[in-house]
Design goal:
The protein is mostly helical. Helix content is about 70%, strand content about 0%. α1 crosses α3, α5 runs antiparallel to α6 and α9 packs antiparallel against α10. It is elongated and about 145 Å long. The N terminus is likely disordered.
Length: about 650
């Protein structure tokens, strides 16, 4: 039994061309008190700084800025960077550290730009105040930035109002931040509308949030489109797909991933694969994983897809997705590279993937390395994978630790592991505790265990409760359990429903039941109108080790004159313990003048209770002039039967007695 952001905001004023100030201050993920976060089920977007968005502003501390400016023109070890920094740079032919030189030059240009902005701002230029405030905000100088942004915002500069909202949000003044974002959004700022929408969403004001996110999306803001799609999906609004597509078309990889998931859930795997590929090409780890899965599913029809699936699994794993490392391990194992598979499984297991830990445990168990197997099964269990407890039970059972096995089965069963429920019930039943076993069989079956359903059927059948047994057999058979289908077929045949029996026998054979395949072949053989199909199913059963099917294959081969094939089938069955096969092999060898070997197989058949073999041995003993041996074999033949053999053995005994008396 099997135990059993960065995107253009549209038109900007000429005053804003030097720097895009209509932007976020920094990434939402960068520190506590950042802007309202996008709801995302994947990795954060990281785009080059080229416009507005969460990544457009880079934080450089005042100390770093001063150090960079001060290093320009410094001589050797007397400079602020010291000799270590100089040594780390690259030297041009004149001996200058070009890396430090370029950095210092850039810093000096930045300082000059800041100076120009500050002078213009102090002279009352609101656009310059906006640019200066934004520059300081990017650098993290919030105190110095705030008065310039307030002055520019009060003068009606839209970008300043947006960035003032960013600054206030970071300081925890979320109410005032929302007021400035609203002012900027009303003036047409898509990023401000996006930020306002996120904050309103987080406050539970979803209607207002939808309005402003819609405004941002309609004004070409990809993050606004993504957030709108996310909000709508949360509310099960079918329009979510449209906005995810708008965002994905603009380069948002998480939107592409979410869109792919929606298409896959709708059964449109072709479109889903396209969007997974789009997101994966932008290094989205889970998109690469799902793309690999879809390609592997299609590889049944095109094996070349397995190589591509492996490439995407590898990319996903290298981007930190342990499930991809695990999947890559299984793929490599199927390719025959168990060593590489184990390396990926170990990487995944150490990252907390229970499935990979179980795979490593199974690998060690298959090598007889019980200690290592137990370590990885426990690792899987620590990762929250109850398969680890079940596998520990199997490991203990396989090494004779029955009491520990039961404890592990019970732990996994109480955690809801359906096959552990079935295994625990089997242990209890073998111990004679039928009343304790039945609830666990029921729990396993109700959870979907086909073995549990089959075993529950066996339990009811043993009590004579045929209707309940039939119901559980039918449930297991519907899930492909071959032995359950076999039981149903036998019932149909006993009732004279040959068509129903044939259907169930076919189901049993397709489910892997060797007995089902043999019985299907036998019914077809008796019917006499499907000889080729009967031969096929005999062969299926015989190849699965069914001894009676092997004998039938031998008989059919002998009838065709294919004696070598017949002998091969007889030997397989006889060596597996079939007395009929041993007798038939003896007959075949005798016809080939191998009398001595034939005698050995007759004897093996007779010792196993084969009447005809015993009678044959009696006749051979008489031929050799051994009446006592002949009498002994006759008596055994009479005892073994069948009736006609017993009758012939009786007549031979009578003749022996008459001859001996004479």
């Amino acid at each position: 039994m099997r135990l059993i952001g960065k995107y253009g905001s549209g038109a900007k004023s000429a005053a804003a061309t030097e720097a895009d100030t209509d932007s976020w201050a920094e990434s939402p993920e960068s520190r506590l008190g950042a802007l309202p976060a996008q709801r995302t089920s994947g990795l954060s977007e990281r785009r080059p700084s080229a416009g507005y968005g969460p990544d457009s502003l880079v934080h450089v501390s005042t100390r770093q800025f001063a150090a960079a400016v001060g290093s320009y023109g410094a001589d050797g070890e007397d400079g602020p960077l010291g000799s270590g920094a100089l040594a780390a740079g690259s030297l041009d032919p004149a001996g200058l550290d070009t890396t430090s030189f370029e950095s210092a030059l850039a810093a000096r240009e930045q300082a000059a730009l800041e100076s120009r902005h500050r002078q213009a701002a102090d002279d009352g230029d609101p656009d310059a105040a906006c640019r200066l405030g934004t520059l300081l905000l990017r650098r993290g100088d919030l105190e110095d930035s705030e008065p310039y942004l307030r002055a520019a915002a009060a003068a009606g500069v839209r970008a300043a109002a947006n960035n003032l909202g960013v600054l206030l949000h970071q300081q925890g003044h979320r109410g005032e931040a929302a007021q400035w974002w609203r002012q900027a959004a009303v003036a047409g700022s898509a990023p401000a509308a996006h930020a306002l929408g996120l904050q309103l969403r987080d406050q539970g004001e979803e209607e207002a949030a939808e309005y402003w996110l819609h405004f941002a999306a309609d004004h070409g803001h990809p993050l606004g489109a993504y957030a709108l799609g996310d909000l709508m999906e949360h509310r099960r609004d079918v329009r979510a797909e449209r906005w995810f597509k708008v965002s994905a078309d603009a380069g948002h990889r998480e939107a592409a991933y979410r869109l792919a998931r929606m298409r896959e859930a709708a059964g449109d795997k072709e479109t889903a694969e396209t969007w997974y590929r789009t997101a994966a090409a932008r290094s989205h780890a889970r998109a690469a994983l799902r793309l690999g899965v879809l390609l592997e599913e299609r590889a049944a029809a095109d094996q070349s897809l397995l190589d591509e699936a492996a490439r995407w699994y590898r990319q996903s794993a290298q981007n930190g997705e342990p499930r991809a490392a695990c999947a890559l391990g299984f793929l490599l194992r199927d390719f025959g590279d168990v060593t590489a598979a184990a390396e990926w499984w170990q990487e995944a297991a150490e990252a907390g993937d229970g499935n990979a830990a179980n795979a490593l445990g199974a690998l060690h168990a298959s090598r007889g390395e019980a200690k290592e197997a137990e370590h990885w099964y426990r690792t899987a269990l620590d990762a929250g994978d109850q398969n680890g407890a079940f596998n520990l039970g199997l490991l203990c059972a396989g090494t004779g630790r029955e009491q520990q096995a039961e404890q592990w089965y019970r732990r996994a069963a109480y955690a809801g592991h359906r096959e552990a429920c079935n295994a625990l019930a089997v242990v209890l039943l073998q111990r004679g505790d039928e009343s304790g076993a039945e609830p666990w069989f029921s729990k396993a079956a109700e959870a979907g265990s086909v073995d549990g359903a089959f075993n529950l059927g066996v339990l009811h059948a043993g009590r004579g409760e045929q209707r309940q047994a039939y119901e559980w057999y039918a449930r297991a058979a519907a899930e492909g359990h071959g032995e359950a289908a076999l039981q149903l077929a036998v019932v149909q045949e006993q009732r004279g429903n040959l068509a129903g029996a044939l259907e169930r026998y076919r189901q049993a054979a397709a489910g892997g039941s060797a007995e089902g395949a043999f019985r299907l072949a036998s019914v077809l053989d008796r019917r006499g109108d499907a000889d080729a199909e009967a031969e096929h199913w005999y062969a299926v059963a015989a190849d699965a080790g069914h001894r009676r099917a092997q004998v039938r294959m031998g008989v059919r081969a002998a009838e065709r004159g294919a004696l070598e094939i017949a002998e091969s089938w007889y030997r397989r069955a006889a060596e597996a313990g079939s007395r009929s096969a041993a007798f038939n092999l003896g007959l075949l060898l005798a016809r080939q003048d191998s009398e001595a070997e034939a005698m050995l197989w007759y004897t093996r058949a007779a010792d196993a209770g084969h009447g005809r073999a015993a009678l044959r041995l009696a006749l051979l003993a008489l031929r050799r002039g051994e009446p006592v041996q002949a009498e002994n074999w006759c008596r055994r033949a009479a005892d073994y039967g069948p009736a006609e053999v017993a009758e012939r053995a009786g007549r031979l005994l009578g003749a022996l007695h008459a001859e001996l008396s004479a």
